[in-house]
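Sharing a chain and its predicted structure for anyone who wants a worked example. Both blocks are below, sequence first, tokens second.
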Amino acid sequence: MTDLNQRGQRGPRQRGRGESGFSLIELLIAMTVLLIGLVSLLGLQQSSFRAAGFSRHATEAAVIGEDALETQLAIAYDSVASQAAVAVDGSGRLDADGFFTRQVDVVDNVNNTKTVTVTVSWDERGDPKAFVFTTLVSP
């Protein structure tokens, strides 16, 4: 039996018992499953943002440390000396409100060399991080 309107076209049918379709319970369950998936994706996105932030800070810290080490290697042997911890920005420039702390420690060795250690530290969301670079300098 087909439902035809006055023009002979099929019109909307009324559903009877036992016909297929979605019940309210089925829709609520589907929406709950979808919501759980979306919340999981948001958590994944948040952790990827954190990882990207750490990667950026780690790269900046490596550049700051390598730059300080190269500076110590470029100066005269007698001028190589320790430097107190100072706050620096992401490019290594002195900045009282800098995100990073850079410290240079120089130890005179008995074999007429100096051990230069550069430590770059920062706070990553309450978790202290540090990179340490060490080299030997000779006259």
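Comments welcome. The longest strand covers residues 114-124.
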